[in-house]
Amino acid sequence: MAEIDDFFETLIKKNGSDLHVEEGQRPKIRVNGQLTEISDQVLTRQNIFSLLSSIVPKERWRHFQAQGDLDFAYALGQIRFRCNYYHHFFGLGAVFRLIPSKILSIEELGIPSCVKNFAHWRSGLVLVTGPTGSGKSTTLAAIIDYINTNFTYKIITIEDPVEFMHYRKKSLICHREVGEDTISFASGLRSTIKSDVNIILVGEMRDLETMELALRASEMGILVLSTLHTSSATKTVDRIIDTFPSNRKNQIRTILANNLKAVITQDLIPSIDLTRRYAAFEVLLRSQALGKIIYTGETFRLNSEIQTNRSSGMVLMDDSLMKLFEEGKISKEEAHLRSTERSKFD
Known about the structure:
- By secondary structure, this protein is α/β, with parallel strands linked by helices.
- It folds into 2 domains: 96 residues, Beta-Lactamase (2-Layer Sandwich); 240 residues, P-loop containing nucleotide triphosphate hydrolases (Rossmann fold).
- It is 35% helix and 25% strand.
- The protein has 13 helices and 13 strands.
- A 7-stranded mixed β-sheet has the order 9-8-10-11-7-12-13, sandwiched between helices. A 6-stranded antiparallel β-sheet has the order 3-2-1-6-5-4, covered by helices on one side.
- A hairpin with a 2-residue loop joins strand 2 and strand 3.
- Helix 6 runs parallel beside helix 7, helix 7 crosses helix 9 and helix 8 packs across helix 9.
- The N and C termini lie far apart (49 Å).
């Protein structure tokens, strides 16, 4: 039976993004969005136990056996992986996400150049959203790297686990890992707010407490960057407000109206020949009308606000998809599948 590092080598060699191992299944990797088997052998309980236990400290392995879930990072030389262990109906399983060793620039990733303006903001909330595997962490890493290269700020990241490692250029950067350096996102945020920090990166706003603390930090003169699993700017705003109980929604609308600076929604679309993926973006930026739209709960107006302010860098996801389609990069079927107004691609 292959060692887990052998599977990682295969993933790297084939330019894959994820390795999947599950009890009762053949090991698979995801390449350009498609899952492919890399072995004919079905993984048994003994195989899985050996593979997974070999790369995790004993204490955290005991935690996994007791709790049923575990997130951590693993390094193979200079290459790092985000690891997620879990129990399922038929036994044990894990997914390993390859973290690129090089942090690509905003230009290399094709991220709209308006995100460079984020570095000049002294406070507020910036959200990068999209489905799992859409490159949210990669986009945030590029933004942090741009700031680190050009500005002298104190930046603290709170992640589960720490993914991209940023080394000091001009800024002072501190990485904190949930489960190792702090017990939760909320706990890490609570202490970080008090640490003379300019920018906080929160790996994910998973719960009400983390959202509330992130909003509070943005009110206190800190720029907060984070992610959500939402598919548009409108759904992002609605998701945050709907997380809170009804007696607090008006308060949260007010805070969000005053402090939301930008929402970038992204997705990765397979190319027509399935040899790569292209990024599509929706960008909502702070405007004169944005605060009022959020405060009054009229989020249905956000699409119109984005269209009205195209000259400032805003763009709708449908327009980004249309551009990729017209350039011959993605198929009409893929654009149609991911669009909001699907009639545009009929």
